[in-house]
Amino acid sequence: MSYKAITLVKRPETEISNDLFEVIERNQPKLGEGQVLVQVTHLSLDPAMRGWMSADENSYIPPVKLGEVMRASGIGEIIDSKNERFPAGSRVMGLMGLTEQSVSDGSNLNIIPKDIPAEAILSVVALPGVTAYHGLFKVLQPEENQTIVVTSAAGSVGSLVGQMAKNMGLTVIGIAGSNEKCQWLKNELGFDYAINYKSEDFETQLKSAATDGIDLFFENTGGIAQHAIFNLMNAHGRIAVCGLIAEYNKETPAPGPDWIGIIKKRLTIQGFTMPDHFNKFPEYGQALGEMLMKGDLKYRAHVLEGLESATSGINLLFSGENKGKLIVKL
Ligand SMILES: NC(=O)c1ccc[n+]([C@@H]2O[C@H](COP(=O)([O-])OP(=O)(O)OC[C@H]3O[C@@H](n4cnc5c(N)ncnc54)[C@H](OP(=O)(O)O)[C@@H]3O)[C@@H](O)[C@H]2O)c1
Fold it and tell me: What PANTHER family does UniProt report for this protein, alphabetically (predicted)?
């Protein structure tokens, strides 16, 4: 029996193109002692994958080597096992790669419940949820009645940040790239304001929404909204720099905000990446699962079909055409 996988064969200079990847066919291996074979059912496409494709050795995680299966996280079922911690039939989540099947010693896998839809797990309890949870509660440390601005607010991380902040009693201003996304944020998720950063009067709309200034800024994008938001920060405001997707495909990053403003307003700005907080995932996952079950968090998943849809599909994250968590169903 054989299965398909996608390897990285070239590094992107700017945008991600199909010629960076090769679809290969592999024979199902014979398992060694302690190994398991996973039949992958769902893969998560994440903006971080763009960074993993680049040659940068100074990042928080080493790059994918050329010729290796492209790194990606996913969900699957153990179909053969020589590891008693992971019996056949278990459902698992972990870094599996863009592949239909994956062999593992279990170190990259966690057993997950079978009764929660895969889309809910990947959208809420997995990376987007723990990122939103950590960035909001541990980095920004929100207080009731504060005003928070979230960029890529209709995305998987941003939509959860905004909902959790709203549930705590903050005034939530979401920034997104289409009117459809803004309507979803206001009408379905209950954001106080949702502003399309592509509107000509974006800054005017932001000023009239943030009448008391901005206390907290959850930054997912960089790009044209960043300076306008920064300029409206209140004294002692806090900024969590989670992602800068507007910069990932550029050769030279855009200049950041003015450092004098950081002094004058005594701002706290903190970047963070979730692999540093791996030990907190069970705690955050439990809290997110409870919020999901109580109906306190809504999500939407954008599902593509088939392994090969992953290579062009990932670009939906950069064009903004994804509506919610981008997932490949195998
Ligand atoms: N620090 C960490 O550990 C960590 C973990 C997970 C994710 N992240 C970061 O969090 C951010 C959101 O990730 P996600 O998985 O939730 O993705 P997402 O928000 O679901 O999807 C990406 C969105 O980014 C927006 N975007 C793309 N290009 C843009 C541009 N030039 N200017 C403004 N917006 C742009 C698009 O929405 P619009 O239609 O609204 O433009 C697109 O839908 C990313 O920057 C990611 O790298 C960081």
Answer: PROSTAGLANDIN REDUCTASE, PROSTAGLANDIN REDUCTASE 1
